[in-house]
Amino acid sequence: DQQVKQNSPSLSVQEGRISILNCDYTNSMFDYFLWYKKYPAEGPTFLISISSIKDKNEDGRFTVFLNKSAKHLSLHIVPSQPGDSAVYFCAAQGAYSGGGADGLTFGKGTHLIIQP
Amino acid sequence: DTAVSQTPKYLVTQMGNDKSIKCEQNLGHDTMYWYKQDSKKFLKIMFSYNNKELIINETVPNRFSPKSPDKAHLNLHINSLELGDSAVYFCASSRALGNSPLHFGNGTRLTVT
Question: Hey, are the CB atoms on A43 and B99 less than 8 Å from each other?
Answer without folding.
Answer: no
